[in-house]
Give the backbone structure.
Amino acid sequence: MQTDCIFCKIIAGVLPATIIWQDDDILVIKDIHPKAPTHNLIIPKKHYVDQTALTIEDAALAYKLFVEVPKKLSQQLPGSGAFNSIVNNGAGAGQVVFHLHVHFLAGKNLFNL
């Protein structure tokens, strides 16, 4: 656990969060500042600063993080199950918490500009 990481503290049970789903590797929580009707965060329990910190040894975890868990969450959505997955890598891309996480957003077309 990184002692200064809010997600590590949530994973450790030190800070509260609304847990949607979890297993040994992944925690899914509701975002406290939602940008869509459904806005969950898919977080690996192991601390990675961002997506680029993953290695080939993390391939199974990456599959869970980017495919398996979003698919599971999308099957619980009404209608088409459409969703956006967003990963911000680095402060310049909008990353605020430096623990890899995937934003899972549904119920709003984010790119209908």
In short: Residues 6-106 form a domain with the HIT family, subunit A fold (CATH 3.30.428.10). The chain has two helices and five strands. The radius of gyration is 14 Å. The mean pLDDT is 94.
